[in-house]
Amino acid sequence: MSRRSLLTIADLDRAEIARILRVGNRFAEVMERDIKKVPTLRGRTIINMFFEASTRTSTSFELAGKRLSADVVNVKGSGSSVEKGETLKDTVITLSSYLPDVIVIRHQSVGACQMAARYTDAAVINAGDGKHEHPTQTLLDLYTIEREVGPLDGLHVAFVGDVAHSRVARSGVRGFQTMGARVSLIGPPTLLPRDAEAALGVTTSTDVRDIADADVVYVLRMQLERMGPGGFVPSLREYAMTYGINHARLRPGQRVMHAGPINRGVEISGELADDPATLIERQAANGMVVRMAVLYDLLAGPAGSTEPAGAPIGAVAV
Amino acid sequence: MAGKILVDEDQVRRTVARIAHEIVERHAEPDRLALVGIHTRGVPLADRLARLIGEFAGAEPAVGTVDIALYRDDVGLDARRGALPVVGDTVLDFDVSSRAVVLVDDVLFTGRTIRAAIDAVFDYGRPAMVQLAVLVDRGHRELPIRPDYVGKNLPTSRDERIAVHLSEIDGVDEVVLETPAGVRGTP
Predict the structure, then answer these.
(1) According to the model, what pLDDT value does residue B40 have?
(2) How many CA atoms lie within 13 A of B169 on its CB side?
(3) Helix (H, G, I), strand (E, B) or coil at A75
(4) Is residue B37 pLDDT above 70, yes or no?
(5) Are B83 and A307 in contact (CB < 8 Å)?
(6) How far is CA A203 from CA A9, A133, A171, in A?
(7) What are the strands of the beta sheet with A45-50, ordered from one edge?
(8) What 8-state DSSP symbol labels residue B72?
(9) Which of A34, A163, A207, B111 is deepest in the core (most CB within 10 A)?
(10) Is the pLDDT of residue A233 over 80?
(11) Distance of CA A92 to CAs A8, A50, A98, Å?
């Protein structure tokens, strides 16, 4: 039986997300110990396939697997058979013959992870597919807000900037809404998805001053590599002046997030990015413990299980 | 399952007190001792033992909790379980190294939980010794693990279940033998 995969944030309901966040707390405690490692996934194999540049996500997935005692293999796009013209399908089939338990995939194409999941019995985790989804980023964002700001229920989160090309926003809108938060999208009309209000149940605005009501301002990276020569904004300088987030645009108490990497002076000012009051550093730190929780959630249950958490282990005579 | 009370409230109280006396007899320095309760019902048992040792010896030992979910040897293998183990807290906010650690659990069965608990404790430091106190030993060991302090030996068949109820969690102190319908109880 194929294992359960995490392809989109929609694969998780509210109770499942809450469970992952709870387990993340447990792993945060493990990270405070001298020995930052537990034997939970000893004997399991995780293959990380990153066909697109990544520092935070690939490193945190690798460390997450290693700190759970799994065997972790990293495959990069450059230097692999993909460079010789091998398709993703063939690469997945080949690597699956080594019987991994999990394949983590980042790919520039939308739907690459869904496609890969059809050709392997391993659990597939979407670590970012084009401008589609990035579910573990959303889980670490939810975890960070819950720890640093408070309960997600009723919170107002405003995504600001290049929403159209952002997988962080696409997963984030769904994830935040699932946990009871209110979401608004703010940016230039060229970078807001059409019909977002009706399709996603969010409010939209082209006026950056509308961040005033938000508890959390989630700044999105200008994804120039996805824009091509299209000219979505007249210039980055003008974008920074009109939509760039800096201290002057924030009111006291508002928290700022950014998934990184940061274009300093474009979507966010350098001073704000360096301000310890932002949650950006916490997001990076929490990435590993949340990815440990995701791996635990996918692998610790019986193969293919979608059951919610059961009785406490202490109640079962082992 | 049909249930039969094997140990009642008064017997539980006296049994825990006896274990506390035995621990005091073998550990003259309570400040070098730590009681570590294994989730879930080992936790209140460790608290009770620590209080009683405090009364008997004049000083309470350190108390901690350990959750073995991350140390199990059957993670993802037991399809019968059908659900993820809930991960509880491990709190050992004292220096484990050089202390005598007494693991405390309600029921000793195969010994796999205890093996996992020992692994967990060693991730925090290197204790001078590790001992094991259990309220009930029901047999069927699958590992070479033997308790140092035993409340009751209750031999059972594999398909029976020993349920320990403690007032802190269940509202009542008792040990119940649960027998599948149609199967005659062993003791």
Answers:
(1) 93
(2) 17
(3) strand
(4) yes
(5) yes
(6) 20, 20, 16
(7) A71-76, A45-50, A102-107, A123-129
(8) -
(9) A163
(10) yes
(11) 19, 12, 10
**E-assigned strands of chain A?**
45-50, 71-76, 102-107, 123-129, 156-160, 182-186, 203-205, 216-219, 255-258
| Dihedral angle sign, alpha carbons of residues B47, B51, B57, B60 | positive
Q: Provide the CB-side half-sphere exposure for A229 (13 A, CA).
A: 0
Rounded Cα distance between B37 and A36, Å, is 22
CB atoms closer than 10 angstroms to residue A190: 14
At B135, is the pLDDT very low, low, confident or very high (cuts 50, 70, 90)?
very high
Residue B102 CA to residue B122 CA, distance in Å, equals 13
pLDDT tens string A44-67: 999 999 999 899 999 999 999 999
Structure tokens at A239: 């974008």
Among A38, A301, A302, whose Cβ lies nearest the Cβ of B71?
Answer: A38
Say what angle helices A135-148 and A280-299 make with each other, to 10 degrees.
120
Task: Judge: B70–A305 Cβ closer than 8 Å, yes or no.
Answer: no
Instruction: Pull the structure tokens for residue A14.
Output: 């509210």
A34: closest chain B residue by CA: B124
pLDDT at residue A3 in the model: 60
Nearest C-alpha in A relative to B169: A315
Distance CA A258, CA A267 (A): 10
Alpha-carbon distance B58 to nearest alpha carbon in chain A (angstroms) = 31
CB of B145 within 8 Å of a chain A CB? The answer is no
| Contact (Cβ atoms closer than 8 angstroms) between residue A124 and residue A111 | no
> What is the separation of C-alpha B40 from the centre of its chain, rounded to a whole number of angstroms?
9
Q: Which residues face B63 on adjacent strands?
A: B35
